[in-house]
Amino acid sequence: MFMLEKISFAACVAVALSTGALADDKNGLGSNVGLGQPITESDIKPWDITILPDGTNLPPGSGTAVVGAKLFTDKGCVACHGEGGTGGANGAVITDIPLAGRGIEATKTIKNFWGSSTTVFDFIRRAMPWPAPRTLSDDEVYALTAFILEGNKLIPPGTVMDAKSLPQVKMPNKDGFIIRFPDRI
Ligand code: HEC
To answer: Which of 8, 10, 71, 169 has its CA 20 to 30 A from that of 183?
Structure first.
């Protein structure tokens, strides 16, 4: 019994101390006990690459499908997505498959399924080429995005893709999604 009281007293002191420590911790978790260091803007920048559907956070730069078509070969995209992006070991990025009528069985592609054009940019920039993600410049990503959107007949030939034009591209299935928590967007 005595031991138990002693232990709980020690626990109370520990809680009191740690609560006090957190209250004094003005700069974030643990800075007053010498742990970690504040993160700087330049540390965050390479990780802050999420593009919202309305184009928020799109970087400067631009590109066209003509440039993108060359990059698609030069950067090795053809090895997995086939000549002209129409299908290879890892699926097509340029297709004309209808979604309607086949329900859940339909092959979902960028053209028939993706809800926003800016996701094409976001995805290529963060994940492709598969063996070497984050190696493309922003201009190259705009050009590859233009190539894929133009190949899918979602933009007129020659359209320059940049932070202004890309969010204006309307994807065919844009209204096919139900936003569960619209007020959180
Ligand atoms: C080594 C193979 C490989 C290479 C090279 C490659 N990809 Fe991919 N790509 C994949 C795989 C695998 C996926 C599916 C990834 C997933 O679903 O998470 C994919 C998915 C994609 C998608 C999404 C397709 C969809 O319908 O969901 C796009 C867009 C894309 N790649 C573009 C590119 C571009 C542009 C390049 C060249 C810069 C490239 N890929 C190079 C393997 C590759």
So the answer is: 169
Q: Is the Cβ atom of 77 under 6 angstroms away from ligand 1?
A: yes
Asked if the bond preceding 129 is cis, omega within 30° of 0, the reply is yes
For the Cβ of 93 lying below 6 angstroms from any atom of ligand 1, the answer is yes
**Structure tokens belonging to residue 28:** 């974030």
- Beta carbons within 8 Å of 153's beta carbon, 6+ residues apart: 96, 111
CA dist 127 and 136 (Å) reads 10
Ligand 1 atom 43 nearest Cα: 130
62 token code pair: 């631009």
* pLDDT of 4 above 70: no
